[in-house]
């Protein structure tokens, strides 16, 4: 990556230099081309003109008589003399094309020279114009410029004069000029290279800085900023990059904060959440799922659902949703490790119209179901409890009306039963009202300072006739000084229900003892009887509503099955607790705790 | 044993009801109407009694201590000796599920508490008349 970038920078530098060189080469090439052409034409033209002038001057010096006679000696002397002066080659040709004299050739060779009538400049000269031609001379073996003109005397054509000049000088001038141009070109190129390099470096340096910064950005480090080198386009680019980095950094911070919020929600949810990808693998689970199924988040990610959570019902929900892409809702029961009921709501996650996975929300509804069952059972129990006395009342009234009224043996007894049942109905309704009042969250306790011993005395006095009837002795061993902060009426109800039970389930000549113990800022009150006791299997359930150890006996004694349940509610409302110890046949010991008065006003520091 | 039932003049009826007063109420009225009544207060005693004697009709409460009414129903209808005995079920519950279950185990009649004593007598009369024919 870094190497690649470096190569690109280098190539950019080279590109810049090459473009400079290209421009220089092109302009120099064009200049050289036109200069060369112009110069060549100009110098050739100059040489031609001077040659023509010289030819015209020489023409006048030639004596027509010598020509007419074709005096070779004369012509030779003349041509050689003039040739020295003009530095031209001078040739005299007669109109038949025969060379009469040539400044550069001895007489013996002239005789062997070929006929010159076919030479282009001679042909032009014969037509009366000045003949000009440039060509390679096989005689002298160099490029030559030829100028020819017709020699006349009084309209009589005498011959042709031809002047020739080597083009060497013209070419020399040209090559000198070319050398200068090439030298100029070379220096320009060197200069272009050096200047180009400097300019490229100047451009590349800030770009390099930007590349380094961009590389940092791409690696996720947005803390770097590019130093703005100038106010030009590159400076603007740097500023834009800086702004972009700032924006991305802000966005990332925002997203990170949002993610943290979401993760917090995800993990603090009571509902279990499982995210599954389209292959059925776990993407993520939350803490609730860890708790429900006893799995670890780190172990779960990336694994097939069934590998982590061995629940076929949920696995089926997942495969159904991944196949159909429709939300699924199901109620599942988990048997192991503990029986729990779950509601699973599964929603597909779409990724560009295809199913990209699914989201499972698992709600533990065990408690809801338990409460529902409890409520249903309660309603069934209440209706049963109400219907039983009602059935008796209705039946006996009917029986009396049908004739039993005159049955002297039974009629009073039947009326007594009706009375009892009416009373039972009344107490049942009252207990139900107390219970519903105690269970409502708005229950207000009218707390006051209460002397427990005196309160119990009051309750005992209400049971005098019953105690006498059962021949049961009661002993109030509560200390005289004990006061609590509690609702008088409610505590009275607690004592009433407990003493009532202690009498009802006692034996003939039995006894009841109420005493207390103070510990850890709490008062423990015990109601101990010498009664029939409670079978061990029933002990954990005696505080349940409508739970009776001996149904028939309880009903006969006028119990509603709600007394202990009411006791439990009242004590719990006072932040206390209740319990029972019992041995069947020997007696029971019910106890309850209440915060002591002192503890409530001045809580001990070490708690 | 049908023979035995037919030859007997008085119809024998067992009342299984744990509520003493209710039991007394039913027994009193049935006695008044000329039936021989056996009052039973729990499921275990009912089963014991059923193994010893044949009854024409059993008036049966469902919520019983010991063995519940449904089990007694099954016991009566599942035993060829007692399967001819009619069963009148008394229940405080009126949920349809219970009725279906009662039909499966073979109760002949249902009465929901609070029921009319007169109606119970009518039902028992009807059942015993059918038996006589």
In summary, what is this structure?
The complex is a heterodimer of chains A (607) and B (133). With 607 residues, chain A is α+β, with helices and mostly antiparallel strands. Chain A has 5 domains: 105 residues, 2-Layer Sandwich (Beta-Lactamase); 47 residues, no CATH class; 96 residues, 2-Layer Sandwich (Beta-Lactamase), CATH 3.30.450.20; 67 residues, Orthogonal Bundle (Helix Hairpins), CATH 1.10.287; 158 residues, Heat Shock Protein 90 (2-Layer Sandwich), CATH 3.30.565.
SSE topology sketch:
The complex is a heterodimer of chains A (607) and B (133).
Chain A: H1 2-61, H2 64-68, H3 72-86, E1 89-93, E2 99-102, H4 107-112, H5 120-126, E3 131-137, E4 142-153, E5 156-166, H6 168-218, H7 233-268, E6 272-277, E7 282-285, H8 287-293, H9 297-300, H10 305-308, H11 312-324, E8 328-334, E9 340-351, E10 354-364, H12 366-401, H13 411-439, E11 447-451, H14 452-462, H15 464-470, E12 473-476, E13 483-487, H16 488-504, E14 511-519, E15 522-529, H17 551-556, H18 563-573, E16 578-583, E17 587-595, H19 597-601
Parallel strand pairs in A: 12-14
Antiparallel strand pairs in A: 1-2, 1-5, 3-4, 4-5, 6-7, 6-10, 8-9, 9-10, 11-13, 14-15, 15-17, 16-17
Helix pairs in contact in A: 1-6, 6-7, 12-13, 13-18, 14-16, 16-18
Chain B: H1 2-7, E1 12-16, H2 20-32, E2 36-40, H3 43-52, E3 57-61, H4 69-78, E4 86-91, H5 96-105, E5 109-112, H6 117-132
Parallel strand pairs in B: 1-2, 1-3, 3-4, 4-5
